[in-house]
Specification:
about 170 residues, alpha+beta, Aminopeptidase, globular
């Protein structure tokens, strides 16, 4: 995506990421409480992976508090989108994660025409799973040894949401 996008949630504002956000985003994804779920990120990886036009800065009260992004499958027979999100731990427990996911989900459904969304937290990330369930995502199944975690692998939880299930 080349255009700049802004999406309003109830309490957050999502806007396209830009290079000026890299230091703050790197600080967010490497903070204790986040880096456990986003292993291996540094400034170079953030620049390489998160400036592709599919990632947004999450702002609350003028502060950049996190990032949220999406991936799309455009084959009309399988069309859907996936979401990933991370907020700095200072902002956990305030409902801002659910507001962020809900705002991006609504945009993906209304503006991008998706009928189904997925999200895949680590199976052990109970906080994230509760957040996504508040928005309407449901567990679909466990993705065994899904992602590298330190010297080993950990399971992921595949969750999905149909457009009509999105919590308003």
């Amino acid at each position: 995506m080349d255009e700049r996008v802004t999406i309003a949630g109830r309490h957050v504002r999502l806007r396209s990421l830009h290079e000026g956000d890299l230091d703050r985003v790197t600080a967010i994804v490497t903070a204790p409480g986040v880096r456990e779920w986003w292993p291996g990120y540094d400034g170079g990886r953030v620049a390489h992976e998160l400036l592709d036009g599919h990632w947004f800065a999450v702002e609350h009260e003028g502060a950049l508090i996190g990032v949220v992004g999406y991936w799309e499958e455009d084959d009309p027979d399988y069309r859907h989108a996936a979401i990933d999100v991370s907020l700095h731990p200072e902002w956990h427990g305030r409902g801002l994660g659910a507001d962020t996911v809900r705002a991006l989900a609504r945009w993906l459904i209304d503006a991008r025409g998706h009928r189904r969304l997925t999200i895949d937290p680590a199976a052990a990330n109970a906080r994230a799973i509760r957040c996504y369930e508040r928005v309407g995502f449901r567990p679909v199944g466990v993705l065994r040894r899904y992602e590298r975690a330190g010297a080993g692998w950990r399971d992921g939880l595949l969750m999905d949401l149909l457009a009509e299930e999105l919590d308003p």
